[in-house]
TrEMBL record:
Record-stated family: Belongs to the LysR transcriptional regulatory family.
CDD domains: PBP2_CrgA_like
Every HTH lysR-type domain range: 2-59
Gene3D superfamilies: 3.40.190.290, Winged helix-like DNA-binding domain superfamily/Winged helix DNA-binding domain
Protein name as catalogued: LysR family transcriptional regulator
Amino acid sequence: MVKLDGITNFVAIAEAGSISAAARRLHLSKSVVSERLAGLEQSLGAPLFHRTTRKLSLTEDGIAFFERASRIVWEVQDAVAEVSERRGTLSGPMRLSAPVTFGRMHLGPALYPFLSKHPGISLTLELDDRRVDAAADGYDAVIRHGTVEDSRLVALPIAPSRRLLVASPEYLKHYGKPTTLDALGGHRAIYYTNRNVADWRFLDLRPDAFVRPPASLRVNNGDMMRDAALAGLGLALLPSFIVGEDVKKGALVRVDVGSEAAEEMIYVAHPEGRRASKKLQELVMALRGAFGTPPYWDVV
């Protein structure tokens, strides 16, 4: 007899790509996950994975089974959430991914009151600056900053995001303050490696309309970009939610080159084809209220 926990276990392995990763996601030991997979394969009378020393890959039977099994798991989770919502409560697990710096600086303080108000929700929040695959990695939703690039996601905006070109007073004193886009090529810059150099986008300009500065540092974390700018390593194009307070205090100076950086969005996105659960909808509303319009971190 096929058990639901065996199906849930299989879907987690298929999405995570390994038994170890699935065990971490399910908060189970590797031995339990392995035993459940073996039990499911025995019940079905067919192997679901090709096993090598390096990875697992789905067999043809596994691919066919996964298509329906993943729908079953989602439908069960959705049904449980709907019953809870009918009783007027928000409960059950929710798994989110968010950028490290935004999560630390702003998301956490906005989440804590929401979770206190809804103690039935068990939230797993994973902070990661890489762009995770919301569906394949098993997230209910991801919180992102930028533009919506994945057509498989449904985006729910929670706040606009202004980006500011900044540098330390010491850097500008030593290298001069650029006043035009053409002058940027003679400076040094700090770049975010999870995006390419063309991420320096300004309103109404083509990406190749000016020469970008050579890099003094490339790094995949906003906190370190800010710290590098404060240390005088170069110009940095950073969201106001990271550098707003530094600009207000004068620790960093806005650099006006005659054109504003293209505005972006902070949004919650869930996989296409899944309805946004009531608890996810309520979370979006809570975050919008906590951040405000315009958001509290914006500088004048």
